[in-house]
Amino acid sequence: MDLITSINIFKQVVRLGSFTKAADQLHLSTAMVSKHVAFLENHLQARLLTRTSRRVSTTEVGQQFFAEASEALALLDQASERASAGRLKPKGQLKIAAPGWLATPQFAQWLADYHALYPEVTIVLGLDNRHVDLLSEGYDLALRVTDEPLPSLIVKPIATIEFFLVASHTYLAERGNPQTPQDLAHHQCILPTHTVIQQKLTHEQDVVDYHLPAVMYTNDTLMEYHLVKSGLGIAYLPHPIIQDDLKTGTLVRVLPDYEHNSAILYAAYINREYLSAKVRTFIDFLSQKIQNQSWI
């Protein structure tokens, strides 16, 4: 028998002063109510009730147990309500891991919009290009760009992220604009240390290999971006952080007639069964924002 259930049944017997009345209240047989009380007494190795033909009364131990158990059950109900509320209403701390290049004005505005909708959620945002361990590092959710999501995680595709080779006008004026993928071998490139770039381009269904000689490496995508704008060289960057520069002409696409790689941005989390409202609403919110204002 379940101990908590037996305690609740014992509580009803004491409140109503009768096994029969408690059975009627709980829609159980009198025999089943009696079994639960006997199980509880056996578990505690103590007599809780004194039974006569006319009434049921608590022993001294039973009265003390009734008072303390009632308080404990009230605290348990309160804790259950709070935990359940987290699944129904977004609240509490939401710890998110995301790539560093998401530190854009657009994403910042989306976070502000989410807070306006769900002010009881406190976001703790960790921006890092490495793949964090959600369980050991205590993250509720990760936003990841990858071709191979881990099978141990639940993942939902959020968006397709395009990556482009870009450079500044200053750099191209000094070093010349590459006309073919092979020309890249004679240029300065800024490369990431946190991932390996697949050095292939597609042109009219032909896949062309190329080589990017590094003038500098960094583990920070935003630093790559600033180094490109400074005129140091060519870099392979995600569209969200360069889209405004491409529109204004501050940065220029290199080899624009060639198709570059793209990858999927996933929302990844650990457990689908007990998905909290804060995680669910953030994923839905971000999906809707990206759908309404494409990053492609």
Observed structural traits:
alpha/beta, nine-stranded mixed beta sheet, two-stranded antiparallel ribbon, 25% strand, rod-shaped
Q: What would you note in describing this structure?
A:
The protein has helices at residues 3-16, 19-26, 30-44, 60-88, 105-117, 134-137, 169-175, 221-229, 239-248, 277-292; strands at 49-51, 56-58, 92-98, 121-127, 141-146, 154-168, 189-192, 200-203, 206-209, 214-218, 234-238, 251-253, 262-269. By secondary structure, it is α/β, with parallel strands linked by helices. Strands 3, 4, 5, 6, 7, 10, 11, 12 and 13 form a nine-stranded mixed beta sheet that branches. A two-stranded antiparallel ribbon has the order 1-2. Helix 1 packs across helix 4 (60-88) and helix 2 (19-26) packs across helix 3. The longest helix has 29 residues, at 60-88.
Summarize the main sheet. Answer: 9 strands, mixed
Q: Number of DSSP strands?
A: 13
| Helix/strand order, N-terminal first | HHHEEHEHEHEEHEEEEHEHEEH
The pLDDT mean sits at: 87
What structural class do helix, strand and pairing data support?
Answer: alpha/beta
From the spread of the alpha carbons, the general shape counts as rod-shaped
* Rg, alpha carbons: 31 Å
Number of continuous helical runs: 10
The helix content, as a percent range, equals 40-55%
Strand content range: 25-35%
Low-confidence blocks of residues: none
Q: CA-to-CA gap between the ends?
A: 58 Å
